[in-house]
Amino acid sequence: MQITMSVNGDSVTREIEPRVLLIHFLRDVLGLTGTHWGCDTSNCGLCTVLMDGAPVKSCTVLAVMASGHEIRTVEGLATGGTLDPVQQGFMEEHGLQCGFCTPGMMLTARALLDKNPDPDEDTIREAISGQICRCTGYATIVRSIQWAAAHPAGSSQAETAVDPETAEVSA
Amino acid sequence: MQIPAAFEYARAESLDHALQLLAEHGEDSRVIAGGHSLLPMMKLRLANPEWIIDINDLTDLDYITEDGDTLRVGAMTRHVGLLESEVVAGLFPLVRDAEKVIADPVVRNRGTIGGSLCQADPAEDLSTVCHVLRAQLVIRGPNGERTVPMHELHRGPYETSVEQNEILTEVRWPIRSRTSSAYTKVERRVGDWATTAAGASVTLGSDGQIEDVSIGLTAVGLEGSATRAEDAVRGQQPSEELYAEAGRLAAEDCSPVEDQRGTEAYKRHLADELTRRVLRKAVERVMACASSAGPEGTATASLGS
Predict the structure, then answer these.
(1) How far apart are CA B203 and CA B188, in angstroms?
(2) Most A-contacting residue of B104, B119, B189, B192 (CB-CB within 10 A), to test interface
């Protein structure tokens, strides 16, 4: 059957079987392999994408059920060549090791910060509690999200991080 | 790779349309709401419906409305909606207690109360919550609407009295004064099903006695309420000894089975301990509400000592 949805702001229409899961639609039909496919049982959270702004596990959503909705994947995080603060935060604070859980973690972080721009550590840990990092890099993931909260889009990240002039004067 | 068997898909535009689709496609059609129970079963080929009727567009079934002495909750209300509702937390704190530990935040964005109750999983938390709150369930079918009490909803594991051509549309929780509640769960890790969980609702009389009580247990083979424990508590002054007696009776009356989550003895121990905790917490909460309510309540606040 024919489905139409918005994926990272672009309207896409495809003919699919109703049993195709959203994860496979994104990866195999659209070629957006940034969304990772993990346990297939809605436990690990690797396949998390945003559906109308809320994180969902795309292994447990039928692609047809997403028809008419807005999907955002990791490919849609950066805008016009500028990384999302969450992506920048994962770089700055070493939020990824093997990188397998990273796309889902970053999307959940994005949704959290959209709802609550200044979350405390407990709130961050709760938000990512449905997602597993098998490198067990949770401490750096939390710090990465805190970095993103402290550097919202539009703020001058480099200046906020280190201002060489001020640093020189105070030295 | 887990892929469901082939099926046909229809998206319902209204409740009547959904009922019409169920009637049209008959025995082998199933309603899908959040999909976090049905889809995993379809992926394992434990469920193989020929028609899937998607009711996610029925946003008019997603509501939480206070209506006199009843809180009406639409069947499409998602876990996240229940968790974040201040009205629910104020009237029935056990719902927020339970929602905090149901699956995980991402799953809670999809799963619905109607789907949870209709799945009738013996380890499912909202079923216990509904037993404790003595919920009434509104079910719509081709011949109109009927209301059933929670103890008549489940016929057994994974089986409900919602007929194939019917849809659960609303959950009703009676609002009672001088009443509060609590739920607590032991799970191996975030997102796991309960090893054991317990819920209780307590109504205190003006003399501080436990005027009414309901106690439910999750995942230990007790469908309905722990009636002997309830009888032991009703009419008594709250005390640690009373909670211990209720815990003992609840543990005796459940029938846990050993599995990867624990032995029978461990689960009985949890049934005992968690029953005490929820009774204690529910009583504390009634008193806290009563003492913040004014002089009448202040008098009862010393009863726990």
Answers:
(1) 32
(2) B104
Chain B residue numbers touching A127 (CB-CB < 8 A) = 105
* B228 CA to centre of own chain: 21
3-state secondary structure B126-176: HHHHHHHCCCEEEEEECCEEEEEEHHHCEEECCEECCCCCCEEEEEEEECC
Pairing of strands B210-218, B196-204: antiparallel
pTM, to two decimals:
0.92
**Residue A90, C-beta contacts closer than 8 angstroms, at least 6 positions apart:** A96, A102, A105, A106, A141, A144
On the CB side of B81, CA atoms within 13 Å amount to: 18
Nearest chain B residue to A111, by CA:
B106
Q: pLDDT digits over B279-297, tens only?
A: 999 999 999 987 776 444 3
For B133-146, write each residue's pLDDT tens digit: 999 999 999 999 99
Question: Touching check for B56 and chain A: CB below 8 Å?
Answer: yes
Write the CB contacts of A162 (distance below 8 Å, at least 6 apart in sequence).
Answer: none
Nearest CA-CA partner of B250 in B277, B227, B267, B282: B227
Higher pLDDT, B301 or A108: A108
Q: Do A57 and B7 touch (CB under 8 A)?
A: no
ipTM: 0.91
Split at pLDDT 50, 70, 90, the class of A160 is very low
Q: Residue B304: its pLDDT value, please?
A: 33
Closest chain A CA to residue B32: A65
State mean pLDDT over B164-177: 97
Partner residue opposite A61 with nearest CB, options B9, B35, B191? B35
The residues facing A51 across adjacent strands are A54, A71
Residue B196 φ then ψ, to 5°:
-155, 145
